[in-house]
Amino acid sequence: MSHARTTSFRWRLLAACAAAALAAPIGVATAASAHASGDVPAAAAVIAESLISQGRPATASSLETSAFPASAAVDGSSTTRWASEEGVDPQWIQVDLGAGASVSRVALHWEAAYASTYRVQISADGSSWTTLADEAAGDGGIDDISGLTGSGRYLRIYGTARGTSYGYSLYELQVYGTPGASTPPAGPIVDVSTSAQLSTALSAATPGQTIRLAPGTYQGSFVATTPGTASAPITITGTRTAIITNDGPSGSLSGCPHPGDGWDSGYGLWLYGASYWNITGLTVADAKKGIVLDSATHVTIDGVLVRDIEDEGVHFRRSSADGVIRNSEITRTGLVQPSYGEGLYLGSANSNFTCYADSSGRDRSDRVQVLDNVFGPGIAAEHIDIKEGTEGGVVRGNSFDGAGLSGQNSADSWVDVKGNGYLFEGNTGTFSSPGTFANGYETHNPLTGYGCGNIWRDNDSDLGDVGRYAVFVSSTSKCSGNPNRVYASNTVTNAVSGLTNIAVTP
Fold it and tell me: Whole-model pTM above 0.90?
């Protein structure tokens, strides 16, 4: 819920001394914390410190609506904000500072929906966290927490109790210290600020190079065909204010999708045979498809925002194996074709194997890791569609907001699993109207021997009094030799029927 700030706040300084701060172990801070109703107090800024969070990739455990993205908390504006879903604890927001960043101070500008208890945490990998500060009596306003000592890539605010009946909301999350290794990038850097420069840089890319986008909008058909290497990947990077768009498609396509021949695919960013690339930080918006990978292995998509897409948001296709998508946000897809509006699409339907299968006869976009992303709201088809013939991926730590599922072409679940051997772990899913919602996760078996051997554990599902099961397995007989397993560590609330329609594994 959007609501005006009416609460008055007081100054409060928590006792701390320099000697105690110096004695504290690395990763645990003794912090001085100030609270106020205005700007960050000048007294707290006497020592010049570098702001290292502004414009960096940010993700969150949930969004109230797509109007309040995580990126709004690091955009430098006091009028935009991140807001979580309401009435649910815990919630978090994190920012990618670059590997090896050092943090000395954090300033939080809360909206009326503040945290009464929360932790400031840092992590090198986004999985194992060290607490830098622990607030047990938050009262909103501005929290200025200094005297921190810690290093890592990700800084997280982990809210454990809300101060109101709403959710959590921050106008600004400001992190001070020394930036991480990703700023500046290693290797040759090509700075671009126009669409023409970006097209040229993509065409001329070489292993080890970084293409760095200045803030602005880049309109056009952007295709990369040169691979990097394992030791010298190619990186395309920018802040969320560097926005890639494409108003295509145009021209005529002969045969299966491929660059050239005067055909504009309409894709925002297309990696065609371009293995070993990193796509970080930027935004892809207002395109037919967002990011498409064809025969592009070992690609990492990190901290991007994909929004306002006609069809699917991100597609690993034509055996684009061993990729990673993490710390990213995908919202508002399927704006023109809701039945093709998946957030993330892994592999290809068997009806499209003619174009996208390799010598095995399948599209083997295998072993893709989907980590710590925010999906929805406004994704018209499944948040993740895992196609038949793919194997061995990991879906961990993601947040699914099912509001806006269209129900077209059976688009009525967060995840549709037709592949084999996927691990679903530590994900959180919710559903609220509008939308059509049947189950949280579903398995199907359109290709003999597939849709089997998948595992669910430690996932939390709120089905909104609409969904039947958190995990619905469509057939046990088709997977009798390689059964799907749903562990008792999963939890479900507000389900019409329950956790799952199969026997639960202890």
Answer: no
What confidence tens digit (pLDDT) does each residue in 298-344 have? 999 999 999 999 999 999 999 999 999 998 999 999 999 999 999 99
What tokens appear for 311 in the block?
A: 């069809």
Which residue spans within 179-323 are E strands per DSSP?
A: 189-192, 210-213, 216-219, 222-224, 234-237, 242-245, 267-272, 277-280, 283-287, 289-294, 300-302, 305-309, 314-317
Distance CA 203, CA 226 (A): 8
Average per-residue pLDDT for the chain: 89
Cβ 405 vs Cβ 380: under 8 Å: yes
Q: Output the pLDDT for position 20.
A: 33
List, in sequence order, every residue forming a beta bridge with 109; answer none if it has no partner. Answer: 142, 172
Strands 267-272 and 460-462, sheet pairing: unpaired
| H-run or E-run covering 19 | helix 18-23
> Is-contact 313 306, C-beta < 8 A?
yes
SS3 string of 105-123?
Answer: EEEEEECCCCEEEEEEEEE
Contact 198, 204 (CB under 8 A): no
User: What is the rounded distance in angstroms from the CA atom of residue 87 to the CA atom of residue 68?
Assistant: 16
| Residue-level pLDDT at 181 | 67
CA dist list (Å): 128 to 148, 152, 153, 496: 18, 10, 11, 35
Inter-residue contact 269 to 222 (CB < 8 Å): yes
Q: Give residue-wise pLDDT tens across range 122-168.
A: 999 888 899 999 999 999 999 999 999 999 999 999 999 999 999 99
Secondary structure tally for the chain: helices H, strands E: 3, 41
H or E stretch including 177?
Answer: strand 169-178
DSSP character string of 326-395: ES-EEESB-SS-GGG--SEEES--GGGHHHH--TTSS----S-EEES-EE-SSB-S-SEEE-TT-B--EE
Query: Is the distance from CB of 383 to CB of 344 less than 8 angstroms?
Result: yes
- Sign of the CA dihedral 454, 457, 463, 467? positive
Q: What is the mean pLDDT of residues 168-181?
A: 92
Read off the pLDDT band of 261 (50, 70, 90).
Answer: confident
